[in-house]
Each structure stands twice: as C-alpha cells, then as structure tokens.
Amino acid sequence: MANFLSTIQFSDPYFSVLLLLAIALVMSVGFVFLSQALGPKRYDRVKYSVYECGVDPFTPASVRVSVKFYLVALLFILFDLEAAFLYPWAVLYRELGLFGLVEMGIFILILLAGLIYAWKKGALEWQ
Amino acid sequence: MEPILFMLFGAIAVGGAIMVVTRKHPMASALYLILTLFSVAALFVLRQAHFLAAIQVIVYAGAIVVLFIFVIMLINVPENRLPVERATVMRLLGVIAAGLLILETALLARRFAMPAAPAADSGSVQAVGRALFTDYLLAFEITSVLLLAAVIGAITLAKKKI
Which of A22, B49, B136, B159 is deepest in the core (most CB within 10 A)? Predict the structure, then answer.
C-alpha cells in the first residue's frame, strides 16, 4: 500500500481533476443514499402530482421539441469545433507571430462565410 | 498508479458502452454515452494526449451528445411505445460472436509487447499546435472548408424554406 501511495504524484495537474471527480462522485452518490436512508417517507397523492407553479398542468410534460433546436445545436457543434482549433493557435500565438495570424485569419474567414450564409438564410432566426 | 487508472477508466468505458446498448430508454443510453466518452478522455490523458482529451470532453462528451439528446427529444417516443426487445436466437449468436471477437483480440494482443510510453508532452496543446501549423497546415486550412460545407449542409437539411 505504501508502495502504491508513493507512485501518486500530487504535483500532477491531473491529480486535482481526479480529486474533484472523486469528491463529486462521493457527494452525489452520498446525498442520494443519505436522503434514501434518513429521509422520512410519507406518501401523499397531492405531493407526488406534477408541480407547475401551483396550477394543474393542462398539457402533458413530454411535448415534441421543435426541429429548430436541432439546427441551433448543429450550428453550435460546427462553431464549437472552430473554437477548438483556436486553442493551439492561442497557446502558440507569440511563437507563430504574423504567419499564425494570417493562417488563422484565412481559417476564420472561410468559416465566417458559413456564418454569413447562416445569417442570410435566416438560420439564426426563430420563425 | 497509471496501470490502476488505466484499468479503472477502461472498465468504466466498457461498462458504460454496455449500458448504452442495453438500456431501454434512449435518453439513458445517451447519458451513459457521456460516461464512456469521458472515460476515453481519461485514457487519452494516460497516453499523454492532453489536447485530444480536452477536445474529447468539449466536442464529444459535450456538443455531440447534446445533439444526440436533441434528436431523442425531437423524436420523443412515449415510454409505453418504445419497442420491446426480445431475446432471439440471432441475438444469442450475436453475443457469442462478440465474445469470440473479444477472446481473439485478447489472444492476439498477447503476442505484442506493450508500446512504450509516449514522451511526457508529446500530446500537449503546444505540440499539437506546432504540428498543426507546420506539417499539417494544408489539412488545417482545408478543415475550415469541410466545416463550411457542414454549415451549409445543416442549414439545407434542417430548414424548411431556404
């Protein structure tokens, strides 16, 4: 056990990530378990009905979501990928200098054409 | 420590993947998919692919699963109308075939030595950026054209009236 513990590098930046994961897991599982074990359970028909600001719900909760959300999500992924490519450039910004700026400029300009297209075609509007 | 973490996250990834294909409700499958993709990100970290791990969490566990969840909510099959899956001979044969494939892979993997651990910062953001802006510069620029095509394709497919 002592041998195993000595292999943990506490200075590793991922150690804190792992610690955060462990604490999040213990807390989320722990609170669900604790409320199951300790909480009083008094069943009541009204208590278990759907709560919608105190008014009886007049439509079922599971409505079909509009396809408009799908287009927004799809466009989000594409521009999210663009943002992902910005990280290595941003880290190397000083090292790459003007060359990197021009290359990234071309990259962003081509994608800007996509954004203008989406804008012109009304893909960003809610209609 | 690293072999233990590899086995831990590998087990979570495989367990999550099994849950993805066995859950009845597609929403539960999508949530288990996040678990699997996140564990794969942890495996990337263990192979020193730090940039890939971050992208795995941001793009796959984040954006792509969000898209999956949107599709599940768009189709929105009520719980009592989900297809009932029965155990058939074909399914049994499928499980046996999958088991044989795993066995075969395990036997083949024993013939090869463990690959050497990659250099400590070979997959860091700096290293990936350097490769991206030198050897793979053309591929990087063409990626923007690919993304542009995807933007136009998405709008054409999802919009009723262009």
Answer: B49
B80 contacts on A by Cβ (under 8 Å)? none
Compute how many other C-beta atoms are within 10 angstroms of the C-beta atom of residue B46. Answer: 17
pLDDT band at A3 (very low <50, low <70, confident <90, very high): low
pLDDT digits (tens, 9 = 90+) for A6-20: 767 777 788 888 899
**What is the separation, in whole angstroms, between the first and last Cα of chain B?**
56
A-chain residue closest to B145, CA distance: A110
Tokens 């086995």, residue? B7
In this structure, are B137 and B151 located in the same domain?
yes
Is any Cβ of chain A less than 8 angstroms from the Cβ of B148?
A: yes
Determine, for residues B154 and A78 on separate chains, whether the beta-carbon distance falls below 8 Å: yes
Residue A125 lies in a domain: no
Report CB contact under 8 Å: A118, B155.
yes
A60 to chain B: which residues are within 8 Å by CB? none
Domain span holding position B105: 2-123
Helix, strand, coil content of chain A in percent (nearest 5): 65, 0, 35
B52 touching chain A per CB within 8 A: no
Q: Are residues B66 and B43 in the same domain?
A: yes
